[in-house]
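To whoever is on call:

I kicked off a structure prediction for a single chain this morning and the downstream step that reads the tokens threw a length-mismatch warning. I double-checked the sequence; it's 344 residues and nothing unusual in it as far as I can see. Pasting both halves so you can look.
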Amino acid sequence: MKASITALILTAAATSSAFAQADGDYTFGWSNYIGWCPVKYLEDTGLLKKHADKNGIKIKVEEFGYVASIDAFKAKNIDVVPVTTMDALTLISQAGIDCSFFVVGDYSNGNDKWLAVGTDSVSGLKGTTVYGEEFTVSHYLVYRGIVLGGLKESDFKFAHRAEKGIVSGFTSDDAELKSTATWNPHALGLMQQPGVKDVFNSSKIPGEILDGFVMRTDLLKEDPKLAKAISGAWFEAMATLNGGGQEAEDLIATVAQAANVTVPEAKAQLKTTFFYYTPDTMKEALTSKAHKQATTLVRDFCFDQGLLGEDADDAGYIGIEFADSEVLGDKSNVKLRFKPVAAE
């Protein structure tokens, strides 16, 4: 779904977690994914500044590539970063950084797709090689498609193909039977080609490819004003998006510009993104049994792929604390937390 992270995974363990400093002057990094592009609206309309002023702090907004944003967060060059739960676990928590999701804004509800030519089913691809970004949510999507299709991972081979080569590699492959895992807008473009079928997508695994805003847990505890300001601005924008009318159209136009797509393309991607429009719906989701089950599935996949580090003897090596304070895994090594914050 996001830009290439394979190289980042290989170096994640080298990063240490120094104590975060709360000084009232913060940087909110973001990257170009449809679920995070409303951040540009927060900046352009002054919504973020309004909530920052209300909390007596300053927030600078800075755009990065996805990998670069995670690197910047780990290096403490930014204070907040949007990330998937899978990448927060394998790239941030695995590096020893205790981090918290204070806003979970959406989940992929069809934005991530497993596309094929020569068949319209996962079973029709048995025995073939699937291309996509290894150790990412694309890889996870394929794994879940295989499992839910009643098949085995050993029935397929997953081969890494970096984001820049996904579209060209798939298009230039003249095989009669081929497939790739990718995300929008790449998937939307490929779907326009003759014979391309959607054999599995993230709408079949609701809540599993989850996106949100992360900050260091020590900083969240020391100065919750940053989380409150971003949460307040975000959910004000979500109310606008959900409310319809010209204000929603203006927001969508900003999202389209930020995502470098047309307004119709942005609307198509927003339709396959499930947003939590209020703090209450977010908190309800994060305390649900379904969320805990989804998180367990993601964690187990990461362990099976060796993404939790060399010291991980079992899937519970890194503890994950849910919004109701229940801990999945090692309670003495909690490094990933769900701490939903609502503006006062």
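Update from on-call: the warning came from a stale cache, not from the record. Cleared it. Sanity check on the structure: The chain has two domains: 6-107+208-338, 112-204.
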